Amino acid sequence: MRKLPLTPSQTIGPFLHMGLVWSDGPDVVPDGTPSAVWLRGTVFDGAGEPVGDGLVETWQADPDGGFGHHQRFRSFGRSATDDAGEWAVRTLKPGAVESADGTTQAPHVNLSVFARGLLDRVVTRIYFADEVDANTVDPVLSAVPEHRRGTLVAPAIGDGYRLDIHLQGEAETVFFDV
After folding, report:
1. Structural domain boundaries in the chain
2. I need a labelling partner for 58 at 20 to 30 A (CA). Which of 1, 9, 85, 109 fits?
3. Residue 130: which of 173, 89, 98, 160 has the closest Cα?
4. What is the pTM of this model?
5. What tens digit of pLDDT does each residue of 128-161 get?
6. Could you read off the pLDDT of 47-96 as tens digits, one per residue?
């Protein structure tokens, strides 16, 4: 049997809006859910310009730190960016998660970002600025150089939390090799 060589990947987009976006994708929980918060931000390219044709996916634990099935909470969200590069997902703030090795990870939301010019998604996390004690001992966040941790920590805003994502450049968000 002859083995064919690998071929190069195609860049992602600009076709994300054709089939990957669904109407309730940003709604991990329905409108009116008690304790719901918005995770918001802007995706920026290496020149500091908003990425208006991107996609942000979220995956997270429930408020108890588990991944079971809860009524009206699906753990996964998907938001296309608008022309200004803005994305938003309505969810519940996750609880701390126990890792397989017995360590506890601070409450966080995993993010995958898809955008033009990327050969594959990039993966990052959102940690919450109001979880100082948990963030201090989180094994993943602690492995990030201290001067770069701020790119992963979302401050509270009126109705939730905000984390801007910089794909390249001086303010580049920390991305994980998964």
Report:
1. 36-166
2. 9
3. 160
4. 0.87
5. 999 999 999 999 999 999 999 999 999 999 999 9
6. 999 999 899 999 999 999 988 666 678 899 999 999 999 999 999 999 99
Query: What pLDDT score was predicted for residue 19?
Result: 58
* Among candidate residues 82, 94, 85, 72, the one with its CA nearest the CA of residue 27: 72
Q: For the chain, what is the total number of helices (H) and then of strands (E)?
A: 2, 12
Strand pairing report for 76-80 and 55-60: antiparallel
Three-class SS of residue 60?
Answer: strand
Q: What is the CATH number of domain 36-166?
A: 2.60.130.10
60-63, Cβ contacts within 8 angstroms, sequence gap of 24 or more: 60/28, 60/91, 60/94, 60/108, 60/109, 60/110, 61/94, 61/95, 61/97, 61/107, 62/92, 62/94, 62/95, 63/35, 63/92, 63/93, 63/94, 63/95
Close Cβ partners of 11 (under 8 Å, ≥ 6 residues apart): 116, 117, 118, 119
